[in-house]
């Protein structure tokens, strides 16, 4: 077993992708925020009068997709061509599933852009609600889908 | 129910903390990375010869604790005085629990610094291992502990 | 006449403020975006169905207030304690006046934080509307109010 | 009327430009700083002995053209190939017109790079002179010219 | 004699490279850190038990290669495709030579990316050791090699 | 021998300085750029007609003093209160000695702010001259002076 971001002697590198062809890459990642049903209902009700929690989180997620080179040490700087965030809310369960999709015509995949984007959108929801409820948590941060690279299309099990 | 980061009319603001006193604030947050036992064993074995995955993730987590003002839209810029990352590895379960602790003498809490730090350390582990295993996921991103603010000490249930 | 940010020989410096006392500083700056009445009416009507232009601009303005040390070459890094954006819309005139208020307990004023914040909120409105109307312009970028420094309170003429 | 940066349901997105062809894009934007004739004369006289206000502002404008992805929420990261700032000074009027020109071979236009560049150069002039005169203002922030995109060449009225 | 980054009138510009063809560019730069033999021996001995100084410095160097557009005023934003850091240690001399190699398929060279990368790796070694020894210094910061541009291959004298 | 930025088990940390008192800290660092006498003479002659190389480098050095938390992995974010750059030019020797001085009222020293500031000013000189001369190098990057911390005043040997 070997690791992507180390050379043959175990030294961390930014892997050389200069010889790879640009292809159209897409990745979708998810993160699920857990809170009480009451709090989630309040978020959905209050959108226009008490503040748009999900609107702020959406912008945080999109902004984060552009900051991956600064956040993930061995990542390549990529020119992202598309970023979007969807929220799937289940009031009974008290869950907000964030889905972040990123697309770029690049030499390497955009999985980290999608993963970081979904995570920061979820963390922003946490930030805006932590005054109301302290035990909000985030789980199921994972890649749902990717396509466009040499390793082919990936779809998370069960999708 | 009201939200921290909106004014009375629902407009997003950076809440005025100029009237608050500085106190010593500490927060610890966690995030757990799930992978196969084999992969985790390889990470632990290979530290000195094939590359130090956890060492890279630790630095990513510490760096992220300094970038919260850029990442969380309505957060205050804080002068962090301490940041540290611990890893609790369980090879049988294939889990790495990241714990990030942040401390500052400030007017507002450092929960987001700890939450973002733990998340980015976990996402960096994902990045470095995604070439070996595609279905790695992160869960249990949550606040474990905080103290030093007006609302008193918080400890996650079961700790 | 001499300039703030140069030493006695005309060399650019970050002026030494280490000997100054911290005081509570507030500044409000404005910028006015000019567009057609129709377009402004559409922004106000569409808030919840076609997209919240002013909500996005508000977040851009708040984020910008935290980026002044990176944008204004000789500015000091400041720990901002409050940032808020107001919009005054006049549909007949086709104008959106952005007002940005920033507060900090610091050794130097927060005028630039307010000026940059108002400007970036206005530029974001431009960005979101430029596909509909090409001749949108911004004027009256100016300081409305400041207080808390040695030079006393300032209020723009006519306010 | 619809807005560039929202999807069909009014959600903010970074619009997908992956299907667009790269073309050579140029944009020029302007911003005019208003001050007293005396102050402007002093800026022009003092260039080599008391400090080069316009030289500092020029660098601030060029630097800002590279920071648009961080500043404008839904903008695409672009690889800029050229940035330049011109100043047109009218001592009698007490005006400095900043003109910022940006060029890139890209899938989307560089208007925002030029608008942000001109604005930050103007705001830097304000910063450097605000100790001498408090009522300096900026107006006529607008696009003068763009070419290279699908919508053709644009030239502001009267140019 | 003329300078790269000024126009015909001496004004600083980001030189227009939009007309240049993309070619594969490589650059290697070096920086040498001087310390006592004892301290260097300790760094090499302690790697796994007292902390991996060179491992941290390597990541700082790679991260810095991505920050050149923010650090060097008139540089172009480049999409780096490879970055790596080597350390050549001479315990008798008490020297660590840092070599940073950067590669990109771009319109302009990557010398500054390599120079900044080597410098920040060296400065990070300084940072981590300055508590043990105050007179650590860095010298021989220079370009060792570049190829891929119009001006042909360059190799520092004596290599 | 132990290292500043690792805990007892060799793990990288941002050292806890929350218990330290704020004191006024000053540091001066230097870096010397070596080039031909002709090139240096041209820089000094051309200041006002062909471009102000040292003026650009000065601003790069000041800007870099504010970016240390992003560049040096285990550094603390500090609120700098003063930054200045001096150049000592020796045409016969073809040397520009950069001296960067930084001051802050803080819990930890500003050596790294001064070291990074001097280095980036020197690297910017290199950038602006590399088209004229390829073998420009930088040496004697070192701390000249610091005061204000627990360890007392430091002055480099021979000063």
UniProtKB/TrEMBL annotation, chains A, B, C, D, E, F:
Lyase recorded as keyword: yes
Reactions the enzyme catalyzes: (8S)-3',8-cyclo-7,8-dihydroguanosine 5'-triphosphate = cyclic pyranopterin phosphate + diphosphate
Molybdopterin cofactor biosynthesis C (MoaC) domain location: 14-149
Regions that span the bilayer: none
Enzyme Commission designation: 4.6.1.17
One GO MF term: cyclic pyranopterin monophosphate synthase activity
Keyword annotations of the record: Lyase, Molybdenum cofactor biosynthesis
Enzyme class, spelled out: lyase
One GO BP annotation of this record: Mo-molybdopterin cofactor biosynthetic process
Pathway(s) annotated for this protein in UniProt: Cofactor biosynthesis; molybdopterin biosynthesis
Coiled coil feature spans: none
UniProt-listed PANTHER family: CYCLIC PYRANOPTERIN MONOPHOSPHATE SYNTHASE, MOLYBDOPTERIN COFACTOR SYNTHESIS PROTEIN A
Alphabetized NCBIfam families for the sequence: moaC, PRK09364.1
Role, per record: Catalyzes the conversion of (8S)-3',8-cyclo-7,8-dihydroguanosine 5'-triphosphate to cyclic pyranopterin monophosphate (cPMP).
Descriptive protein name: cyclic pyranopterin monophosphate synthase
Species assigned in the record: Desulfuromonas acetoxidans (strain DSM 684 / 11070)
């Amino acid at each position: 077993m070997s690791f992507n971001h180390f050379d043959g002697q175990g030294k961390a590198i930014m892997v050389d992708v200069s010889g790879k062809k640009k292809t159209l890459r897409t990745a979708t990642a998810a993160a699920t925020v857990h809170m009480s049903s009451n709090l989630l209902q309040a978020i959905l009700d209050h959108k226009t009068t008490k503040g748009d929690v999900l609107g702020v989180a959406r912008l945080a997620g999109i902004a984060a997709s552009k900051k991956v080179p600064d956040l993930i040490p061995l990542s390549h700087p990529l020119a992202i061509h598309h970023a979007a965030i969807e929220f799937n809310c289940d009031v009974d369960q008290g869950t907000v599933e964030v889905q972040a999709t990123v697309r770029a015509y690049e030499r390497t995949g955009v999985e980290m852009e999608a993963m970081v984007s979904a995570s920061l959108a979820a963390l922003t929801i946490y930030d805006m609600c932590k005054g109301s409820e302290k035990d909000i948590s985030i789980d199921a941060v994972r890649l749902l889908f990717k396509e466009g690279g040499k390793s082919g299309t990936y779809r998370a099990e069960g999708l």
